[in-house]
Amino acid sequence: MTPAGKKNPMDLRFLGCILLVITACCVAHAAAHVPMIPAGGEGVAGAVIVPDSAKSYAWYGTIGEPGRMEYYRLEFVQGDEMVFSLSTADEGYLPVLSLLAPTNRTGEVVPPGIDLPPGYEVIGVPGAVPPQATYEPFSPMAMYEISSLEGPAPVSGVYYAVVSSPEAGAYILATGYLEEFTPAEWLGIPVELVLVRLWQGQSPLLLIGPYVVGFLLMGLLVMRKGNGAWKDLGISRWSGLIAGALMVGSGLLVLAEMGIALSVTGWDPGAGLTLVFAVIPLVLGAGAFVIGLRAGEDQNLSQRIGMLVIAGLGFAFWAGILVGPALAALSAISPPYGTPVKEETGAGEK
Questions:
Q1: Strands (E), 24-168
Q2: What is the pTM of this model?
Q3: What is the DSSP letter of 51?
Q4: How far apart are CA 209 and CA 202, in angstroms?
Q5: What is the domain partition of the chain in residue ranges?
Q6: Average pLDDT over the chain, rounded to an integer
Q7: To the nearest whole percent, how much of the chain has pLDDT over 70?
Q8: pLDDT band at 40, cuts 50/70/90?
Q9: At what angle do helices 204-224 and 235-265 cross, to 10 degrees?
Q10: Which of 1, 95, 252, 348 gives 20 to 30 Å between its CA and that of 214?
Q11: Positive or negative, the Cα torsion across 46, 47, 50, 54?
């Protein structure tokens, strides 16, 4: 028990770590696409509507059957910068990108099967399978860039980006250049990234495994406190400890995905950014463990503030797939049910 009015050195050290994390967070807010899993996209009438042609989106699509074409609808004003790139996570797969522009020039070759509206021309975008994959640090992944198109829009109007392939497979269509997020988009990234991993064909066990490790670590920490520690855990402690387990799991998952990607691409300087996104959840999870194990009837204001900071940073940097930060906030505001978890003393000690 810390004497009244005296700060615990552990509290000061933890708050110092929080300041370091905040600094790292400012550095880690890096350029990235908003990840999207498109629904539909067949034909001009069913085209996926891109909400903002300037904003940077990454559309993780799938050609479900050979010969299928996926359409994306964008609007440009003459002179607007058009930015497209087509990639895949599968070595050797070669989808094709075409742009339907409302320029109505004659004599253009129309690929068979394409849904070409009246008054439009087809602008083909040459592509090739690259010899080496590149590393994507924001959502760690090995990617093969097939083709790209940049330049001013020749006329104002509605354009269609079309992705096609003679073979079934998965692709990534990046549109736009403004790297920005709404709060809802930023908070939703953990869910979108889970869908992206499933889109990649990763096993759900791989996605769950790091969180299992986080819960095992939580159990070991509580057991280390003594055989009676479990019964002393109240709402504040349980929510804080579970938040810590989920946040640690998020950090471990980022490390696992980084390792998988780098095993394909080799070392890449962008991995440094990925490490920041891995370390932040690990630090936040460790902080939630520290406060959760000590929270009880003596839970002080600095501990509650610390847990609220953990919750806020957890939301901001996807630690704990939204549930973890929510539980950290619950821990901060819950009545301090339970008694402080004590270390077991040796025989004869008081």
A1: 34-36, 48-49, 57-63, 69-76, 81-88, 96-101, 121-125, 134-136, 141-152, 157-164
A2: 0.83
A3: S
A4: 12
A5: 9-31+184-333, 34-178
A6: 85
A7: 81
A8: confident
A9: 140
A10: 1
A11: negative
| Spatial separation of the C-alpha atoms in residues 261 and 134, rounded to whole Å | 9
Which of 328, 32, 38, 14 minimizes the C-alpha distance to 189?
A: 32
Each residue's pLDDT tens digit, 55-114: 999 999 999 888 889 999 999 999 999 999 999 999 989 999 999 999 866 555 667 788
- Backbone dihedral angles phi then psi of residue 341, each to the nearest 5 degrees: -75, 120
- Specify the 3-state DSSP secondary structure of 230: helix
Q: How far is CA 196 from the centre of its chain?
A: 9
Bridge pairing between strands 57-63 and 48-49: unpaired
Strand, coil or helix: 340: coil
In CATH, which of 3.40.50.300, 3.50.50.60, 3.40.50.10310, 2.60.120.380 is domain 34-178?
A: 2.60.120.380
**DSSP category for residue 148:** E
Distance of CA 334 to the CA centre of its chain: 29
Distance CA 343, CA 350 (A): 12
State the Cα–Cα distance between residues 98 and 104, nearest whole angstrom. 15
pLDDT over 90 percentage in the chain: 58
**Residue 41, Ramachandran bin (φ over 0: left; ψ between -120 and 50: alpha; else beta):** left
User: What is d(CA 331, CA 337) in angstroms, rounded to the nearest whole number?
Assistant: 10
What number is the average pLDDT over the span 118-133? 90
Sheet strands (E) in the chain: 34-36, 48-49, 57-63, 69-76, 81-88, 96-101, 121-125, 134-136, 141-152, 157-164, 169-175
Q: How far is CA 228 from CA 14, 219, 237, 302, in A?
A: 26, 13, 14, 26
Closest CA to 328 of 284, 264, 269, 294: 284
Handedness of CA 235, 236, 238, 242 (dihedral sign): positive
Query: What number is the average pLDDT over the span 189-213?
Result: 94
Query: Is 268 in a helix, a strand, or coil?
Result: coil
